[in-house]
Write a structure and sequence with these properties.
- It is a single chain.
- Helix content is 39%, strand content 4%.
- Among the domains are: 68 residues, no CATH class; 86 residues, no CATH class.
- The chain has nine helices and two strands, in the order H-H-H-H-H-E-H-H-E-H-H.
- It is mostly helical.
- It has a two-stranded antiparallel ribbon.
- Helix 5 crosses helix 7.
Length: 275
């Protein structure tokens, strides 16, 4: 958001926070007397004369109506042309733009993120929080060249430490781990703190360089399940990355490991004297 708009929004919030509600006004639904604690002070019109409880009930009813709205018969995905059903389509939208199946919608989002990640930041751009000049791959992650992402790594780290943002990322991580099996595909470890996503055919580092860690996990959360990914614990993942195999896998197959043939009596020294 532009700094001027941020300042204007902050001023509006301060005005609304200090603006008293009309004395003696009642909720247009349940009839209780409105006070500062139980009313929405941002809306002073007749439509806004409603307590927070009734407002929450109305919002829930609207969401249930949108969710139960049936899909018109004969509608097709505007990308792949398959018939849309309640299973492969978001029933909360009825516009022509949203006549798209879940798989095509996820592919469009992924393409959008890749296009934004390939954009370069204009020279001389500054962090919208602290004002430091942004330098690609030094103090700025190329997530997107949009103005809203002009944020240095330090300010972004402080933002992501907020309790709400941290809780959201943990929920996404748990959902993705559960989506890909919920336990290590090699040893069966199921403790969430020990699990990670592994690229079966390699290429994980190249993929992570094109987007931030949060964008990577959110993409896995929204997109259909990929066949080139699996869940591994950190031990098995490190073994595959360092040695090309996992000891658990060789124990199950009954094959020997290179370290089994190493003798304690044989020590090879380099010319510098270090092992």
């Amino acid at each position: 958001m532009h700094p001027c708009r941020e300042e204007a929004a902050k001023q509006r919030e301060e005005i609304h926070a200090t603006k008293p509600i009309a004395e003696g006004k009642r909720c247009r639904k349940c009839g209780i007397i409105l006070t500062v604690e139980n009313s929405n002070r941002k809306i002073q019109s007749k439509q806004g004369l409603i307590c927070k409880t009734c407002r929450g009930v109305i919002g829930q009813q609207k969401r249930e109506i949108r969710g139960a709205k049936p899909m018109p018969e004969g509608k097709q995905c505007r990308k792949c042309g398959i018939s849309l059903t309640a299973e492969n389509w978001n029933s909360g939208q009825q516009k022509r733009l949203h006549l798209i199946c879940k798989a095509c919608n996820a592919a469009e989002k992924q393409q959008w993120h890749e296009e934004r990640a390939s954009e370069s930041i204009p020279q001389g751009s500054k962090c919208r929080k602290c004002g430091v000049v942004l330098i690609v791959d030094e103090n700025w992650v190329r997530v997107s060249a949009e103005r809203s992402h002009y944020q240095c790594n330090t300010c972004k780290a402080e933002y992501e430490k907020r309790p709400r943002a941290l809780q959201r990322r943990r929920q996404i991580r748990m959902a993705v781990i559960e989506k890909y099996g919920g336990k290590c595909a090699c040893c069966g470890e199921s403790t969430i703190e020990f699990l990670a996503i592994d690229h079966i055919n390699g290429g994980g580092s190249r993929e992570r360089k094109t987007q931030s860690t949060s964008a990577f996990w959110y993409g896995l959360y929204t997109m259909p399940r990929r066949d080139d990914l699996r869940v591994l614990c950190h031990n098995c993942n490190m073994a595959f990355g360092s040695y090309g195999y996992c000891p658990h896998e060789r124990e199950r197959n009954g094959t020997t490991r290179p370290f089994d043939d190493v003798s304690d009596e044989v020590i090879v020294k380099s010319t510098s004297g270090r092992i």
